[in-house]
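Posting this for the archive.
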Amino acid sequence: AEGDYTLIVTDRAGNVSQIAFSIAIPAQLTSVTISAESKSYVKAGDTVTLTFSSSHAIQVPQVQIAGQQVQVDKAGAVYTAKYIVKDSDTEGEIAFSIAYKEKAAMPVKTVTKTTDHSKIVVDKTAPVISNVEANRVYNAAGVAPTFNEGTALLN
């Protein structure tokens, strides 16, 4: 267990050796999740939230989302960082990093993966609609539009 200890060893002749030492278990991020308003695909203007907690108290961590330094808020033992997706962000999975340390003298640790395998993907490509042309009139039997992704609404 963590704490300060003194070890006293006595041999058969009565000679005594004593040493004081400490055991410190390094802080670890116990929960790391990334989310975006209940969806996993985002576009410019959407907000991405990175939430994490630590097994021990840590100094204020440095957090980057999509390569940008972001502010970190703390409520109790839970840290939160938010990022608003920009038009200039690259399509694909949003990368993040959390750099933290427990005390000034300890080394910095960096986390770049979630603990629940969550991920957020920037998708700037609109669905492609095929088999129908804009502003053309079709008879009911002759139209069968298709699209490469997403869901459709016909109104």
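Residues 74 and 80 are 6 Å apart (CA to CA). The chain has a mean pLDDT of 91.
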